Amino acid sequence: MIQLKHLFASLLTCALLFAATDATCDPLTIGIPLPLTGANAAPAQDIQRGFELGKEILGLTDVTLIFEDDSCDGAKSITAIKKLLDINKVDIISGIMCNTALFPAAPLLNRANIPVLTVGATTGDQVGIGRKIFRLFPAAQEALIPLMPEMAKYGPRLCVMTETEAYSALIERAIESQWPSRGGGFKITKESVNAGVRDFRTPLLRLHKRGCDSILLNACGDDGFIASYRQLRTIDATIPVFALFFPGSSTVQRAFPEGLRRVTYADLASGGALATARGGEFIKRFKERYGEFLIGSPMALLAFEALRLIAESHKQGIPLDQFLRRGPIKDGAIREYTFDSDGAVQGIEFVVLNAEPPGRSDSPFK
To answer: Is residue 56 packed enough to be buried (19+ CB in 10 Å), middle (13-18) or exposed (0-12)?
Structure first.
């Protein structure tokens, strides 16, 4: 009788809470595959911390976060997501930092008919990956839009050194389609190595001999950028270097304590520039707890926003995919944005950043 009384009281409390706040009393389990090991572990750590601190800040006592290592590898991604779906019985998938982890797992996610909100992975220039797969990070090739005018300042001969995998192949396709249209005589000279190979000297020498006004180091991870930049500077100490994302990583910056000379790159604006007042409070709490972010991209802030969206849709009892399609999102941790009909975020833009050490008298980026 006492147990029944306690059960009735618990159900009554839940019903009153639901009536008062539109909240659901059902627990929620979120599966979060991330590259917790390997070359992309630094941004993954920022993301994991963003989720964990976000759960604390939002007071989500009924939410369980389950992290799995996918190493940004297709086969490992499928294994990790199968575990999350079949064993952990998660309600939603978030995280997923790399395109190389998202694409192979997309058929599995679609068959499971489960909502997905990625923090880092995008679908690049491909559409129709899944009706319930949403991406909070803008498509990587859009970072070239503000970067190409900077490249064009140095002349029409752009050299591209690619560490080949799905992400860097996407960037190469975007360059090939957009660079020639920038004006008469604009041309691309390309060399490539397989992903994971760390000897770039021979292809870099070939590019140097053929002539470059500037070079895009199209790496697919911190290690690839570090190796290619270091080897390039032994061949040509002055050529302007362009890149996406990686020069802002703490791993890269630790590798070059003297600074990255004549390097310009594109990334999202810093967390402070992207954040609302709510996001600014999260950043403050994050730095008090963990110190500085490990990478330049505001991945921890995006993780917090992803968790907030998931929690809010759950509280209101609206399926996540329907919740995200309702229109502009203005009350979050980042400035106003929306999702298009394909699930890609709109309204978050890339900016050009200078990796040149401050105060260099020979900097061309004053």
So the answer is: exposed
